[in-house]
Amino acid sequence: MGTFTKIMAAAAVLMTGAAASCSTTATSPASRADLSTDSSQALNKLIRENPAAAAISRQSRAVLVFPSIVKAGLVFGGAYGEGELRRGGQTVDYYTSFTGSWGLQAGAQSYGYAVFLMNEDAIKYLERSDGWEIGVGPTVVVVNQGVAENLSSSTLQDDAYAFIFDQKGLMAGVSIEGTKVTRVETR
Fold first, then answer.
1. Burial of 134 (0-12, 13-18, 19+ CB in 10 A)
2. What is the tally of structural domains in the chain?
3. Which of 29, 32, 112, 139 is the most buried (most CB within 10 A)?
4. Cβ(159)–Cβ(119) under 8 Å?
5. 35-57 per-position pLDDT tens digit
6. What is the span of the domain harbouring residue 154?
């Protein structure tokens, strides 16, 4: 590994660590209340503005909502955010979302995402796993405009459907494949 690559790797690790340590995890009642408010607003907006999300939400058993993920990178990068698992409109657990990446990238962006869990097996996998890596375990379909046009109540056969929303910033494209979702201990 060349000197420049080592420097960039070290900078990315420091940047990601600093971002993670600066954010509060959902351990205090105040931070949980803020997260709940942000999650409610993001989920309501997604359902109001996206007919496919509205239809899927009516059939889902639970939803994992991350209202704000911050991603930054310069060759190496990372994305981090906090969210909650909701069942029946009630928050049942808190989670973090982390993605590490490398390759041709420079800049920063923010976005949110929601994963609608369609069956009890998907929920149990999330609750029992020591962190869920999206792309491993339950089948997750990322719903974009093309996928949304072909969805109907009879075609919803997968374990989970994910929607990415509110993308802002200077980086191109967002993927949640390989994202690690981990439950936060709040007790």
1. buried
2. 1
3. 112
4. yes
5. 999 999 999 999 999 998 999 99
6. 3-184
**DSSP secondary structure letter of residue 165:** E
Task: Tell me the per-residue pLDDT of 7-19, one tens digit each, with 9 for 90 and over.
Answer: 344 444 444 444 4
Contact predicate 76/9, CB 8 Å? yes
User: In b/e form, how buried is each residue of 60-94, taking b as 16+ CB within 10 angstroms?
Assistant: bebbbbbbbbbbbbebbbbbbbbbbbbeeeebebb
Task: Provide the token pair at 107.
Answer: 């800049």
Whole-number Å distance between alpha carbons of 104 and 7: 16
Torsion of CA 72, 74, 76, 80, to 10 degrees: 0
Nearest to 119 by CA among 163, 157, 92, 159: 159
